[in-house]
Specification:
4 strands; 4-stranded antiparallel β-sheet; Alpha-Beta Plaits; globular; YdhR; 3 helices; alpha+beta
């Protein structure tokens, strides 16, 4: 059963197009992760927070990715990384036009 994962962390570096250029290789690597379906990259420059909302094919794959990604972010110098995995109510999500 597919799950959604939300990750965010304090970020003060680059935003928008500059972030897209700097993170392109990382984005290309994410699509090869086991069980990965899609990701929305998120950023809030005013609050200095970046992250993403992901869909994985299973809780196990999402949790494995979250563990690996948290460690990777810490190696990049990030801290206060918050990540959670959620089950999806597909019936209600479909009504609300979710990209299932």
């Amino acid at each position: 059963m597919a799950v959604i994962m939300k990750v965010d962390f304090p970020h003060k570096e680059v935003w928008g197009k500059e972030m897209a250029v700097q993170m392109k290789e990382l984005a290309q690597s994410i699509v090869n992760e086991p069980g990965f379906i899609w990701k929305f990259w998120t950023e809030n420059k005013n609050e200095e927070i970046a992250g993403g909302v992901y869909m994985f094919d299973s809780r196990e794959n999402a949790e494995n990715y979250l563990k690996m990604h948290t460690n990777r972010l810490m190696k990049f110098g990030y801290s206060d990384i918050r990540g959670k995995v959620f089950e999806i109510n597909e019936e209600l999500s479909s009504i609300c036009k979710a990209p299932l």
